[in-house]
What we know:
This protein has helices at about 35-45, 60-70, 110-115, 120-125, 140-155, 180-190, 200-205, 215-225, 270-280, 285-300, 315-320, and strands spanning about 1-5, 10-15, 25-30, 50-55, 80, 85-90, 100-105, 130-135, 160-165, 195, 230-235, 240-250, 250-255, 260. By secondary structure, it is of the alpha/beta class.
Amino acid sequence: MNILAFGEVLIRFTVTDKMMLEQSDNLNMTTVGTGVNLLSSLAHFGYNTSILTVLPDNPLGKKAAADLRKLGISDRRLLYRGKNIGSFFVELGQGARPERVTYQDRLSSAFSLMNADDYDFEKALVGIDIVHICGISLSLTRQTRRAAMKLAELAHERNKVVCFDFNYRFSLNEQNNHEVMKKRYQSILPYVDILFGSKRDITGLLDYPNIDETKLYEQFCHDYQINIFAGSKRTFIDGKKFFEGFLFHHDKVYNSAPRELNILDRIGSGDAFASGVITGLLEKWDFNDTLEFAIANSVLAQASMNDSPIFSKEDVFHYIDSEGKNDLIR
Ligand SMILES: O=C(O)C(=O)C[C@H](O)[C@H](O)COP(=O)(O)O
């Protein structure tokens, strides 16, 4: 099974020792991004993965490519242009202090400036079964929007399975007007088969009425011919944090049991969930098992440093089978 992701590769700078930026001079550097995180996880589950993106044509781009290879992602579809790579700083959270992300300018990255016509999408899709597109491309530049649209359209035409993640980030859309963003999402959704998002994406961004979930998802998936709609959410019970997921198919919502969270680093939780769902669908597990696996993968990812999950299927099953009670493997 060959999976391709399209999206921005970013450098993440994490302040070491759980300090805040102001307190520290030390940063840890990793290569991340929605596509990277998803593919890293899928590569560790045993699938062939590659990413279609643009890296700067300099040592920074080479460093990112080396990190991608280390995560098990093929470098075959990487393009090298321009000078800049997007980046962000992370201050880890603790107790009352939330984890915090500060983006650097992403709009002048090599990826953000690449013209849609300069990609050879036809060639990139050869031998590919599943294409994943990150919704952040709709928020960045005219070029990334056009590229995401063109790829979605072509992949759909070529009968590839198209996955799309809303990935709506308020902080990246302060300059974008609601109606404009709504139109952008409305134009890509008709090409999507598997969609990741939340109820809020449908009611808040696409202006559907806030009604019962089954009716809402039925209407929405019917309007855009979406085969699978899945997402995760956080809940709080008796002062504890839990993570749970849903999956909608045809006329039914499946819900996972909530799993308790003990967070070390929560960035990448959505991508870990999505890779778990894609795995369940590829393996043709039933939807309840698929959700259990996806939630477990994400709970493990949130108990680990960095965005890109590196758990094997066995690691995830071990966590499920031991009900999370095993805290030493030797
Ligand atoms: O911020 C961005 O734009 C990125 O692409 C970097 C992050 O790795 C993903 O966003 C993680 O996404 P979640 O799984 O939703 O936490």
